[in-house]
Automatic annotation (TrEMBL):
Pfam families: CsbD. The lineage of its organism: Bacteria, Bacillati, Bacillota, Bacilli, Lactobacillales. This is CsbD-like domain-containing protein. Belongs to the UPF0337 (CsbD) family. Residues 3-52 form the CsbD-like domain.
Length: 67
């Protein structure tokens, strides 16, 4: 989980809120888009880490079987 992506999600939420308060639909939509993009990046990073962990696990199993 990336701290940067969490920050970007929060920033998008603030931007969305400001857009709602001011009636600026463009700013609101930009905030929503920033939140969604940051969440997608976070999910992709988590998936990548999970796959890398699984690969390391398989490598360790193979190393044990070779001994």
């Amino acid at each position: 989980m990336s701290l940067e992506e969490k920050f970007n999600q929060a920033k998008g939420s603030v931007k969305e809120g400001v857009g709602k308060l001011t009636g600026d639909t463009k700013t609101q939509a930009e905030g929503v888009a920033e939140k969604v993009a940051s969440k997608a990046k976070e999910v992709a990073e988590d998936a990548k880490e999970a796959v890398e962990g699984a690969i390391e696990g398989v490598k360790n199993i193979i190393k044990k079987d070779d001994k």
